């Protein structure tokens, strides 16, 4: 697996270590950035450059509200109406208000074709010549459906109103009329000066002017913005800090800010402040962004730059996409199919009526209605009459029933105690009610890494010092144990008692003071960092720029080297109970290019020493030839990396005073460079970070969340593919892939250069084909990996852009053009797409290649790239996708995927607020999909199949009856039965099956992931199932009509009366239908409860109760025109042979279904049928397995290259070196001088 990586600096390939570009990067910025890339190294400082005025399109005048209403700042809204381009600070996420709720909600509901159709029916029923049913048979169900949906929408919107009101009415102090006055957030405007206090939320994007801390230092917590929990610092300009402390000074502040337009880039802000004739550059460090919280700062003042919808957090929230399930789309197509069938049937019956009237109706004097109408006109009226009569083929209550089922399924997810995380008191939360059944059809999962697969908690596990490895359970004498006990830290009063370490021998060596290497190792960890420290209640609280650094400093603290405090130019530590202060001469901070950080210190005895820590690759390149233990340390690094630990090498270098002074001069000059300062500083740093002496290396565990490997293995058995999309380093992501069993030793790993080459060859082959063949139909492409075995892809963001022809390609072409090495783009060998079709084919090739692999890991990718990868799979594979993440950088892919899941853990709540489902641990995903998702899919499919069946069986009786009534649109049932059939007589049993049914229990669902496959393949609800339901309904309607019809021919009642009238036939057919539908539902129910039983029997009882009431004489007297079946039920149902007719009808209807189900389960059983048959045996086996504890997951595997995994963003070096920390330099600290002797550089040896 050891692969040579091309150095990005020396080649034209992408750099694996950097994010390729920001989301809002424009072509102009690409042009600028490419011109800024310096191919040749220049060590001379560059003269300062001024920002181009054209880049600044946003102007803000302090304390001047009328300025922002000037005509030049107006934008056209509609026709001649204009408004200010500056947004107010009020946010609106609600959809309705008091005036717009009714019209807007009705408009949205009538966008559903079914609702519009029933409204048209209602209008038709008002026309006397057409109406065959009373208007209330359509109005009552329509009002119920519209009312239930409207109430649901109203409740949702009221919640949004409350949230908006709570946010907009938060209070803040605003400078008005020369004094700070309390104001609400919604009244804040651009250009206002506001005052914020400790723990206040920041109401807008604000330029920090001053604060109560020295040098206007302000701490903010950005968890809601970027998902990181560690504190960040912000700085005011020196000029505003010195001159804007008093209210009077702030009231007279009249600066003009010119800056970039509002955008979603959280990592960039560029602006200039013009005040009193001076120009002052502004950057992101000067900005307080909305969504953050003020911490550890009593008071700060700032100027509002962006408000409301213009703020970065609102711009970064992305477009909310309306998500619909596959079943929703299929259901709509089926409703359209029913519309077509309805029109065809109605047209056929209308034609039949025209012929019937021509041949029979005109000649029968007793049928004359006194209206002189032609047969064709009567057929036309009959067509509309049958549209009304057969309207129940399109089920009006379908949509509201689906919403009720989804709401119930969402509540089951919320109530699931097995998805409740007690440690954080966090239950699972279904934040949407419209996507539950889609959870049972997932094919691809896109997961973040940090905080999603891992805990984002770093723990110091092992280390190697001077060629000796430490960290395994060992006694103080060095005897290795199988299971050791944790070290007792009671000897160190400053130790973190939560720190777990089991190698007692290392503690003994450090405490003895005899091992100088071990002492120097932990001294380096306590000094070489950018951690800030606070003293709270007598305890030390470290604020680190990354969890890694915090873990290393905490380790040093427990081993007796306690970091106490720092000032601008000193660091104070306690070395084994002796307090010492070191003078900090320079701090060389970490960045993604350097992959290391260094600190230059003057010891109390006057010696100057450089400490450096960083990736093994960069440290080894800079080691002195005299450095010892290189090979041994490298072998230990390989062992650590094999155990998926994050490694870091430690080294030092003694520097003479003359050498330091010469370098310091260059350093000072580089710090004053305005253009490309970072690159100039990096070159200066390179000069001093050479000839290093190796001390050892650390190994930190980025702990996986509980159950991650088992969850991934289970989901893989369900044929769900998992892709990891992360902004972390490639090596880190790869190691975590092995740790969580996503990658295995048997897999062949393919990296960016391999993938790009394979795609280039496929593209070249395609170009060699003729144009006609290329555009036409051709045979399926060959697989990219024909060799047997499993494959995996590991790509970086740079390679992803390279492969998919994104902006990075443009930057590369610009760079080539500047270097004079540009190949003409018309040449196919350039690798550029010749047209949009070729670019699309390249994307299809990439998706096909990735989908051939067992695992895909994309690292160093931007949030936009995460969303793009998800979009590609959705677009070209038509697959159902799920994205899961925990930070704001995951919001894009969460919104892009069909299902978005947020992890509510260490990070902020931005991902959770954008998600469809949220829970606290990754392992709950298998239960969400394999249990709740599968059950929801099965229930919804069964509900829809039966719902269509029962409506076909009910409606098509009118069709058969039409052959015996001259196609005259006469209904076969009583009007009130038609009205109440879907509302009361048949709705409850099918609704409960949609809510409660399950084929196997939750434990068996998790034990047999293959049960999930039918959902992925859409086997339980498709057009085949739809037509089966249609033909089943036709069969039942035939039996329901013709058996009673045959029974009524030439019959005589017991009392001499012949109940062969139309009303008696309607009662018998309706009673048979109610029995058949409810008993058929009983046959299809897999999971019986008391509620199901009550619903079936209750529906039948309700039918008879309501029917006898409606057919009673009393109600006929009150409403004679509405209730015309007086006494029909009591007259018909007292005849025994009519009850026998009902029993015969029900028996003949259900017997074939019972036989088919028996044969199907006996001869062609599904996986679920087999599991149900052996359920008892499987449950006993699971009980046995629970008694035996499963073995814990063991890390390890084949040896891999040691991975640099110092997940470290820019630290506090700027803050420390600028002297703007809270703690002032102490008057003086003393301590014994360091006992380690100075070693001449040329004859240096390891300590």
TrEMBL record:
<keyword id="KW-0812">Transmembrane</keyword>
<feature type="binding site">
    <location>
        <position position="450"/>
    </location>
    <ligand>
        <name>Mg(2+)</name>
    </ligand>
</feature>
<feature type="binding site">
    <location>
        <position position="886"/>
    </location>
    <ligand>
        <name>Mg(2+)</name>
    </ligand>
</feature>
<dbReference type="GO" id="GO:0007030">
    <property type="term" value="P:Golgi organization"/>
</dbReference>
<keyword id="KW-0472">Membrane</keyword>
<dbReference type="InterPro" id="IPR023214">
    <property type="entry name" value="HAD_sf"/>
</dbReference>
<dbReference type="GO" id="GO:0005886">
    <property type="term" value="C:plasma membrane"/>
</dbReference>
<dbReference type="InterPro" id="IPR023298">
    <property type="entry name" value="ATPase_P-typ_TM_dom_sf"/>
</dbReference>
<feature type="transmembrane region" description="Helical">
    <location>
        <begin position="1062"/>
        <end position="1079"/>
    </location>
</feature>
<feature type="region of interest" description="Disordered">
    <location>
        <begin position="1180"/>
        <end position="1202"/>
    </location>
</feature>
<feature type="compositionally biased region" description="Basic and acidic residues">
    <location>
        <begin position="43"/>
        <end position="53"/>
    </location>
</feature>
<dbReference type="InterPro" id="IPR018303">
    <property type="entry name" value="ATPase_P-typ_P_site"/>
</dbReference>
<feature type="binding site">
    <location>
        <position position="889"/>
    </location>
    <ligand>
        <name>ATP</name>
    </ligand>
</feature>
<feature type="binding site">
    <location>
        <position position="890"/>
    </location>
    <ligand>
        <name>ATP</name>
    </ligand>
</feature>
<feature type="active site" description="4-aspartylphosphate intermediate">
    <location>
        <position position="448"/>
    </location>
</feature>
<keyword id="KW-0479">Metal-binding</keyword>
<feature type="transmembrane region" description="Helical">
    <location>
        <begin position="1086"/>
        <end position="1106"/>
    </location>
</feature>
<dbReference type="GO" id="GO:0005524">
    <property type="term" value="F:ATP binding"/>
</dbReference>
<feature type="transmembrane region" description="Helical">
    <location>
        <begin position="133"/>
        <end position="155"/>
    </location>
</feature>
<feature type="domain" description="P-type ATPase A">
    <location>
        <begin position="168"/>
        <end position="230"/>
    </location>
</feature>
<feature type="transmembrane region" description="Helical">
    <location>
        <begin position="110"/>
        <end position="127"/>
    </location>
</feature>
<feature type="binding site">
    <location>
        <position position="449"/>
    </location>
    <ligand>
        <name>ATP</name>
    </ligand>
</feature>
<dbReference type="InterPro" id="IPR032630">
    <property type="entry name" value="P_typ_ATPase_c"/>
</dbReference>
<protein>
    <recommendedName>
        <fullName>Phospholipid-transporting ATPase</fullName>
        <ecNumber>7.6.2.1</ecNumber>
    </recommendedName>
</protein>
<dbReference type="GO" id="GO:0000287">
    <property type="term" value="F:magnesium ion binding"/>
</dbReference>
<keyword id="KW-1278">Translocase</keyword>
<dbReference type="InterPro" id="IPR001757">
    <property type="entry name" value="P_typ_ATPase"/>
</dbReference>
<feature type="transmembrane region" description="Helical">
    <location>
        <begin position="333"/>
        <end position="357"/>
    </location>
</feature>
<feature type="binding site">
    <location>
        <position position="866"/>
    </location>
    <ligand>
        <name>ATP</name>
    </ligand>
</feature>
<dbReference type="InterPro" id="IPR032631">
    <property type="entry name" value="P-type_ATPase_N"/>
</dbReference>
<dbReference type="InterPro" id="IPR044492">
    <property type="entry name" value="P_typ_ATPase_HD_dom"/>
</dbReference>
<keyword id="KW-0067">ATP-binding</keyword>
<feature type="binding site">
    <location>
        <position position="726"/>
    </location>
    <ligand>
        <name>ATP</name>
    </ligand>
</feature>
<feature type="binding site">
    <location>
        <position position="450"/>
    </location>
    <ligand>
        <name>ATP</name>
    </ligand>
</feature>
<dbReference type="GO" id="GO:0140326">
    <property type="term" value="F:ATPase-coupled intramembrane lipid transporter activity"/>
</dbReference>
<feature type="domain" description="P-type ATPase C-terminal">
    <location>
        <begin position="912"/>
        <end position="1166"/>
    </location>
</feature>
<dbReference type="GO" id="GO:0016887">
    <property type="term" value="F:ATP hydrolysis activity"/>
</dbReference>
<dbReference type="InterPro" id="IPR023299">
    <property type="entry name" value="ATPase_P-typ_cyto_dom_N"/>
</dbReference>
<feature type="binding site">
    <location>
        <position position="613"/>
    </location>
    <ligand>
        <name>ATP</name>
    </ligand>
</feature>
<dbReference type="Pfam" id="PF00122">
    <property type="entry name" value="E1-E2_ATPase"/>
</dbReference>
<dbReference type="GO" id="GO:0045332">
    <property type="term" value="P:phospholipid translocation"/>
</dbReference>
<feature type="binding site">
    <location>
        <position position="727"/>
    </location>
    <ligand>
        <name>ATP</name>
    </ligand>
</feature>
């Amino acid at each position: 697996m050891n692969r040579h990586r091309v150095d990005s600096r020396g080649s034209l390939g992408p750099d694996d270590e950097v994010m390729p570009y920001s989301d809002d990067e424009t072509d102009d910025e690409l042009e600028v950035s490419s011109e800024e890339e310096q191919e040749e190294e220049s060590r001379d400082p560059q003269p300062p450059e001024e920002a181009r005025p054209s880049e600044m399109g946003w102007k803000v005048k302090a304390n001047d509200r009328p300025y922002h209403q000037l005509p030049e700042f107006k934008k056209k809204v509609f026709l001649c109406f204009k408004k200010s381009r500056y947004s107010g600070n009020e946010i609106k996420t609600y959809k309705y208000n008091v005036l717009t709720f009714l019209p807007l909600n009705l408009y949205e509901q009538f966008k559903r074709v079914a609702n519009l159709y029933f409204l048209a029916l209602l209008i038709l029923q008002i026309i006397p010549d057409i109406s065959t049913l009373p208007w209330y048979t359509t109005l009552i169900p329509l009002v119920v459906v519209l009312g239930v949906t409207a109430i649901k929408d109203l409740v949702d919107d009221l919640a949004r109103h409350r949230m908006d009101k709570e946010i907009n009415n938060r209070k803040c102090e605003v400078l008005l009329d020369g004094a700070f006055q309390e104001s609400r957030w919604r009244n804040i405007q651009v250009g206002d000066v506001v005052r914020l206090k400790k723990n206040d939320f920041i109401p807008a994007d604000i330029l920090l002017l001053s604060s109560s801390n020295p040098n206007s230092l302000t701490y903010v917590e950005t968890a809601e913005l970027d998902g990181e929990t560690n504190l960040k610092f912000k700085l005011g300009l020196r000029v505003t800090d010195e001159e804007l402390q008093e209210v009077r000074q702030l009231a007279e502040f009249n600066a003009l800010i010119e800056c970039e337009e509002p955008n979603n880039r959280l990592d960039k802000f560029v602006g200039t402040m013009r005040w009193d004739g001076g120009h002052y550059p502004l950057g992101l460090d000067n900005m307080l962004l909305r969504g953050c919280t003020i911490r550890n700062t009593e008071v700060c003042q700032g100027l509002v730059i962006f408000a409301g919808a213009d703020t970065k957090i609102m711009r970064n929230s992305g477009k909310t996409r309306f998500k619909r399930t596959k079943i929703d789309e299929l259901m709509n197509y089926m409703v359209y199919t029913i519309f077509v069938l309805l029109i065809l049937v109605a047209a056929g019956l209308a034609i039949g009526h025209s012929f019937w009237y021509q041949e029979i109706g005109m000649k029968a004097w007793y049928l004359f209605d006194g209206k002189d109408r032609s047969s064709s006109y009567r057929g036309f009226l009959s067509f509309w009459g049958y549209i009304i009569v057969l309207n129940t083929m399109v089920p009006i209550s379908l949509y509201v029933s689906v919403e009720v089922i989804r709401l119930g399924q969402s509540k089951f997810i919320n109530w699931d105690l097995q998805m409740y995380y007690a440690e954080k008191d966090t239950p699972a939360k279904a934040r949407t009610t419209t996507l539950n059944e889609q959870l049972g059809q997932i094919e691809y999962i896109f997961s973040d890494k940090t905080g999603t697969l891992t805990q984002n908690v770093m723990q110091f596990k092992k280390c190697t010092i001077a060629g000796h490895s430490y960290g395994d359970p060992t006694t103080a004498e060095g005897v290795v144990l199988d299971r050791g006990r944790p070290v007792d830290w009671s000897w160190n009063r400053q130790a973190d008692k939560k720190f777990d370490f089991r190698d007692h021998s290392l503690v003994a060596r450090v405490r003895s003071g005899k091992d100088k290497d071990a002492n120097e190792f932990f001294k380096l960890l306590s000094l070489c960092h950018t951690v800030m420290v606070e003293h709270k209640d007598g305890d030390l609280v470290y604020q680190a720029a990354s969890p890694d650094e915090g873990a290393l400093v905490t380790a040093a603290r427990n081993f007796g080297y306690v970091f106490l405090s720092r000032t601008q130019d000193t660091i104070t530590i306690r070395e084994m109970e002796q307090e010492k202060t070191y003078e900090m001469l320079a701090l060389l901070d970490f960045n993604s290019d350097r992959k290391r950080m260094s600190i230059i210190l003057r010891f109390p005895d006057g010696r100057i020493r450089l400490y450096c820590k960083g990736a093994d690759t960069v440290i080894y390149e800079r080691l002195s030839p005299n450095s010892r233990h290189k090979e041994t340390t490298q072998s230990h690094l390989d062992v650590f990396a094999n155990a998926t630990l994050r490694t870091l090498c430690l080294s030092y270098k003694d520097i003479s005073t003359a050498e330091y002074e010469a370098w310091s001069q260059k350093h000072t000059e580089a710090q004053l460079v305005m253009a490309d300062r970072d690159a100039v500083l990096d070159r200066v740093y390179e000069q001093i970070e050479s000839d290093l002496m190796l001390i050892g290396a650390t190994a930190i565990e980025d702990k996986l969340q509980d159950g991650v490997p088992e969850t991934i293995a289970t989901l893989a058995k369900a044929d769900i593919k998992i892709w990891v999309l992360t902004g972390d380093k490639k090596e880190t992501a790869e190691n975590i892939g092995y740790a969580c069993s996503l990658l295995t030793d048997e897999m062949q790993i393919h990296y960016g250069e391999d993938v790009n080459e394979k795609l280039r060859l496929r593209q070249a082959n395609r170009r060699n084909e003729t144009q006609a063949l290329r555009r036409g139909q051709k045979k399926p492409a060959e697989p990219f990996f024909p060799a047997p075995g499993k494959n995996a892809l590991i790509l970086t963001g740079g390679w992803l852009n390279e492969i998919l022809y994104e902006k990075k390609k443009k930057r590369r072409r610009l760079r080539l053009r500047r270097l004079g090495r540009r190949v003409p783009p018309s040449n196919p060998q350039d690798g550029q797409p010749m047209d949009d079709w070729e670019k699309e084919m390249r994307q299809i090739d990439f998706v096909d290649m990735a989908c051939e692999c067992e695992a895909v890991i994309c690292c160093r990718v931007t949030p936009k790239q995460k969303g793009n990868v998800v979009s590609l799979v959705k677009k070209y594979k038509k697959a159902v996708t799920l994205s899961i993440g925990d930070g704001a950088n995951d919001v894009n892919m969460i919104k892009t995927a069909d299902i978005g899941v947020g992890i509510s853990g260490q990070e902020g709540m931005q991902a959770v607020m954008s998600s469809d489902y949220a829970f606290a641990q990754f392992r709950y995903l298998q239960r969400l999909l394999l249990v709740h998702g599968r059950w929801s899919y099965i229930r919804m499919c069964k509900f829809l199949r039966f719902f269509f069946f029962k409506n076909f069986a009910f409606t098509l009786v009118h069709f058969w009856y039409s052959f015996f009534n001259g196609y005259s649109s006469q209904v076969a049932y009583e009007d009130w039965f038609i009205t109440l059939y879907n509302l009361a007589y048949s709705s409850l049993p099918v609704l409960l099956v949609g809510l409660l049914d399950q084929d196997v229990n939750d434990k068996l669902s998790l034990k047999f992931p293959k049960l999930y496959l039918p959902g992925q393949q859409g086997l339980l609800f498709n057009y085949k199932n739809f037509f089966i339901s249609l033909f089943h309904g036709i069969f039942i309607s035939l039996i329901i009509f013709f058996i009673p019809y045959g029974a009524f021919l030439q019959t005589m009642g017991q009392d001499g009366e012949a109940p062969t009238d139309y009303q008696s036939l309607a009662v018998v057919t309706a009673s048979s239908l109610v029995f058949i539908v409810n008993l058929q539902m009983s046959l299809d129910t897999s999971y019986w409860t008391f509620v199901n039983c009550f619903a079936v029997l209750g529906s039948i009882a309700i039918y008879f109760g309501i029917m006898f009431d409606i057919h009673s004489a009393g109600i006929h007297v009150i409403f004679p025109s509405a209730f015309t079946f007086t006494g029909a039920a009591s007259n018909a149902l007292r005849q025994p042979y009519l009850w026998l007719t009902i029993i015969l009808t029900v028996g003949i209807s259900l017997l074939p279904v019972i036989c088919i189900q028996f044969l199907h389960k006996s001869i062609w059983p599904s996986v679920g049928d087999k599991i149900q048959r052996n359920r008892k045996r499987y449950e006993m086996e699971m009980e046995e397995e629970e008694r035996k504890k499963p073995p814990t997951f063991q890390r390890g595997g084949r040896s891999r290259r040691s991975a640099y995994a110092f997940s470290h963003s820019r630290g506090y070096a700027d803050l420390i070196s600028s002297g703007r920390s809270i703690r002032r330099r102490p008057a003086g600290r003393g301590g014994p001088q360091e006992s380690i002797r100075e070693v001449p550089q040329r004859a240096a040896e390891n300590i």
